[in-house]
């Protein structure tokens, strides 16, 4: 084969090899992007509800503090224990108080002896005065000594009562039936007046406290909507999905910093597993509240399939003005079936992508 013919054949093979990736890239570029399904976000219709974050609190919660100084020499409970009213929780070293009590009792005995002697002396002087053996001045002096001894005895008895009370303060007792929530001391710790020793709460009476914006709270009709107010405790699962509030109270004061008003909702009974400090969500019918201008307030609900979860963050792909989907962080509320409530981060009238996987491929 001539050399020129072989060279031409080699060039043709090389061009064929180079054309293959170009054709593959062309096919890739011409491959159509999957259609992006979107949804126009609208405010909830009648029957929808507004949700606000809240926290479980105890109606009766007491911080027991030390009233005397001393080391903790006896500790009979631990955090989480159930206690009865009057039960001894701990004892503080009371040697100094007991010694002071002993001194006061000895002084009281001395004062009683002096009073008895003054009483006998007064009786003797009175008999002598009747027989005209002493003057009126001598009788008056005996009466004064008796009254002074009587006052001294009363003062010593009062001092004994004080020292006994001080000695009793070294014993810390539970004020009512409850549960030990916190126990910040251990055996041997030094207790000082005012230092917290234990926190006790009554598990039979709990409530949920939520902070409502003034625009919502000012138009909330608590009396009419008590039956429609719902409490959700997500940690309880289905058992805490819809709890009816026993009593609803809107405090008549507003917080100067957050500009919110406090709404308190008493739990009808203690569900299993509910403790103070747990997260709760308060749900109000949209019909009970209004926003500025008297327009009924409503919440926003989106499909759960449209959500994007990354670590602890929740987001949605929102269609921008350019038509491209942009990932935006949102804050979620209650879940109802395949719908989830959006508390913040999304407004009515915006359009979202229903398929996050497809929206992530759009550039």
Short characterization:
The chain is α+β, with helices and mostly antiparallel strands. It has 6 helices and 22 strands. 31% of the residues lie in helices and 32% in strands.
Rg, please? 41 Å
* Residue windows where pLDDT falls under 50 for at least 5 positions: 22-31, 288-297
Query: Multimeric state of these chains?
Result: single chain
> What would you call the structural class?
alpha+beta
Q: How far do the termini sit from each other?
A: 54 Å
Question: Can you tell me the number of structural domains?
Answer: 4
Biggest sheet: strand arrangement: 13-12-16-2-11-15-14
For the secondary structure, the number of strands is 22
**Helix and strand run:** HEEEEEEHHEEEEEHHEEEEEEEEEEEH
> Which architecture name of the largest domain does CATH use?
Beta Barrel
User: Per the principal axes of the C-alpha atoms, what is the gross shape?
Assistant: elongated
- Main β sheet profile: 7 strands, antiparallel
| Helix segment tally | 6
**What name is given to the CATH topology of the largest domain?**
Elongation Factor Tu (Ef-tu), domain 3
> Can you give the helix content as a percent range?
25-40%
Keywords: Coiled coil, Signal
Organism: Roseateles albus
Pfam families: Beta-barrel_RND_2 (PF25954), BSH_RND (PF25917), HH_MFP_RND (PF25876)
InterPro entries: Beta-barrel_RND_2, MdtA-like_BSH, MdtA-like_HH, RND_pump_MFP
């Amino acid at each position: 084969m001539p050399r020129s013919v072989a060279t031409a054949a080699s060039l043709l093979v090389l061009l064929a090899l180079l054309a293959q990736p170009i054709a593959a890239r062309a096919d890739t570029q011409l491959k159509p992007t999957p259609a992006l399904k979107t949804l126009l976000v609208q405010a909830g219709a009648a029957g929808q509800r507004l949700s606000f974050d809240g926290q479980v609190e105890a109606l009766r919660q007491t911080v027991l503090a030390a009233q005397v100084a001393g080391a903790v020499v006896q500790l009979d409970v631990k955090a989480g224990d159930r206690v009865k009213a009057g039960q001894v929780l701990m004892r503080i070293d009371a040697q100094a108080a007991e010694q002071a009590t002993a001194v006061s009792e000895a002084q009281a005995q001395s004062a009683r002896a002096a009073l008895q002697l003054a009483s006998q002396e007064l009786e003797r002087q009175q008999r002598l005065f009747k027989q005209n053996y002493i003057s009126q001045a001598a009788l008056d002096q005996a009466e004064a000594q008796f009254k002074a001894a009587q006052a001294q005895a009363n003062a010593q008895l009062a001092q004994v009562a004080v020292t006994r009370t001080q000695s009793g303060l070294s014993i810390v007792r539970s004020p009512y039936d409850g549960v030990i929530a916190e126990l910040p001391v251990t055996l041997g710790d030094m207790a000082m007046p005012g230092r917290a020793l234990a926190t006790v709460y009554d598990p039979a009476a709990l409530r949920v406290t939520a902070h409502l914006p003034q625009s919502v709270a000012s138009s909330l009709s608590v009396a009419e909507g008590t039956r429609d107010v719902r409490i959700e405790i997500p940690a309880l699962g289905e058992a805490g999905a819809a709890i009816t509030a026993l009593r609803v109270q809107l405090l008549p004061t507003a917080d100067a910093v957050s500009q919110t008003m406090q709404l308190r909702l008493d739990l009808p009974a203690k569900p299993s597993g509910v403790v103070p400090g747990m997260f709760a969500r308060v749900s109000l019918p949209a019909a009970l509240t209004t926003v500025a201008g008297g327009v009924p307030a409503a919440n926003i609900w989106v499909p759960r399939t449209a959500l994007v979860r990354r670590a602890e963050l929740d987001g949605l792909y929102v269609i921008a003005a350019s038509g491209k989907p942009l990932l935006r962080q949102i804050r979620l509320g209650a879940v109802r079936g395949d719908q989830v409530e959006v508390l913040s981060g999304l407004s009515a009238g915006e359009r979202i992508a229903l398929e996050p996987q497809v929206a992530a491929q759009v550039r």
